[in-house]
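Run log, item B.
One chain of 156 residues. Sequence copied directly from the ordering sheet:
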Amino acid sequence: MLFHLPRVWVISLDIVMWLVIHMGVSYSVTRMPVRYFNPEAWLYKKREWEKEGTLYEALFAVKRWKGLLPDGAAGFKGGFTKKKLRKSDDAYLQRFLKETCRGELAHWITLFCSPIFFLWNLWWVGFIMIGYALIVNMPCIITQRFNRIRFRRIVQ
């Protein structure tokens, strides 16, 4: 802990910082040009261990709960909603693939912001904040990867 603050201020700062991180990252990534998102890039490409997406269904039953996740893009002007397929033409499906990359990147960045909480929290609270970041972001990352693997097959 770099800064010592009264408990009420620490809790308030934690809440405000998570709001700023979630909204700031989401807004910033939404503003990035779609051409920056390539489904074949290192971060987004399909991995052998993902077993064509069946790993996500076998381990996490992703099909059961993915529809319950909020679609953050809907909250920003110009955001591309990924909750449901709206068209089936090739251009739309290619854009959908790129938008899953955008969503995944936003959640990875948010997740990697979590160590900042060690600056003003006790060490064990910092780990709770990392746990929170994992619980909130990993389901979204899993869903983006799962959907992208499925839609690649459709596009091909």
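Observations after the first pass:
- The CA atoms of residues 27 and 76 lie 7 Å apart.
- The two ends are 51 Å apart (CA to CA).
Flagged for discussion on Thursday.
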